[in-house]
Write the structure tokens for this entry.
Amino acid sequence: MSKTFGEHPRPSIATAVWTPTRLALVMSALAVLLVLAGLAAGSEGLSFAWQDNGWVIGAIRAPRTLGALCAGGLLGLSGAIAQGVFRNPLADPYLLGSASGATLAIVLTLAAGSAVGVPVALLGGDWLVRIGLVGAAFVGALFGVLLTLTLAGSTRSPTTLLLAGVVVGVLLGAISNLMMLISPEALRGAQMFLLGTTGFLGWTSLAPLIASLVVALPLAIRFARVLDALVLGEDTATTLGIPVPAIRLLLILLIALATGTAVAETGLVAFVGLVAPHIVRRTLIVTHGTLLALSTLVGGVLLLAADVLARTLLAPQELPVGLLTAVVGGAYLLVLLRRKHVAEYSA
Amino acid sequence: MSAAPCLEAREITVRRGGQRILDGITTGFSPGSWTAIVGPNGAGKSTLLATLAGILTPAEGTVHLKDRRLTEWSLRERARALTWLGHTSHADGDLAAHEIVRLGRLPHYGLLGTPSREDETAAWDALAETEATLYAHRRLRELSGGERQRVLLARAFAAQTSLLLLDEPTVHLDAPHQGRLITSLKARSARGQCVVSVLHDLTLALGADRVLVLADGVIQADGPPTERTLQTSLIEVFEHSFAIEAIGSGTRSRLVAVPVA
């Protein structure tokens, strides 16, 4: 039937404007520009008089800028993993109760701190406090995910898992709100924090963010082929020789690690994790290995861009970055849904 | 069945929701043969195939792959020995078609390995065999049902395992591609592969070396399609909705299922 075995014309994709390398280069260039803008953005707008602002840049703007890049990267990465594991393009790193678990843990830590008379500072603070907060957030995220997994029981259906995640999210969110009602003074800062903000990022935030990225990204990429295989369904993936349940658990733990760290440092920043993988997939046809790496990069660029905008749009006023990403990300999704709708009916 | 079976079901029973989907099935499949499993809806055909592939574990009985129980094989060893192609409805995604086919080679190069030249050649040969080369760089999601099925078939062919279990491989295919798939399956069994396929099109099934008639989780008949008793049982299972007639003569003669209006 085929005439030329072994010598088929392999259609090239020469028409494609974007290649993974090009997207990575463009995004890296954007990242560098945004870092410069982030260092220059202050309460009087952009200022490139570096010497005059030496201390502010070194102590405040630099860690905040780099931290936003890392936190965004973690969100983009966990969004890409979540969308692959649950085979759902609308999956989000905050699903499965990881974010609500992390939030609850932080709220509890703050409340406990004020109850024993040691108010926990969200901004700056010493290393021990920071590490304690990140640890609490990670444990909380893990607790949320495990609770979701337990609720979903032995069923292997991603939909059941997602539903269980929604239930856990609502439950833990309610408990967090209750805590805030009970001890409002201790949690005045927390409210701002829960809206999603890059304002609390200091040098002490960078270590956990970078550490979590260094652990999660290579591990996730190493097992990215499982996400490729899951496109064919769990059964087929199993017949391809993949121990699906074990690797899926590992990937869910990585989602918890990445989300937990990001939430501990920046609160609940909406949509970055959802949108970053979308941008990559719309631009390129890639396997999950490349998708994970590029989503991390795009996520970092998105959050940093949002941070720079939040600092400069209404300077000297500052917007919570989470509000900005929610508005922009929401608008992007709306456009996407409309286009998809149109495309489906005109096809 | 001259050669010793490479895949065997021994008294397997599968239950779902208190119902017996398969009820004590015993059968074997030999290298170099193409078996078509036919039967009415809900007969247990897909369940049988999935149990043979090790996706479902039987409540009773065992499946034997070559000299060992299927459960004694590691997942990867098993993947190198048999390929299963299931229903296609949920294969959807942004992966390029050729990457899907490359996944068929995964058992050979391993989860953490890199594909070799041999893997590459096998993938592109398979794409050529199902005539899917032209759209190999497009997203799976953007392909039509038939195009997608040809990519999934190429994925199954690329694995080059000695056992090939195909659940309704002709689904969504147009007539020429159905014909070419059947030619492909015959060539594969002639080269020594053991091919087992669930088929809905009875005329296609009557072209197989062996037809296994399944109804209510029990084997009703089993043998070459030319066998009189098998044909009688087949017609009975399908409530006399068709007749079997031979067309052509000599070596070109073949059996067709003609619907009875």
Q: What stands out?
A: Chain A touches chain B through 32 residues (CB under 8 Å). The first helix of chain A runs from residue 20 to 40. The two ends of chain A are 32 Å apart (CA to CA). Chain A has 13 helices and two strands.
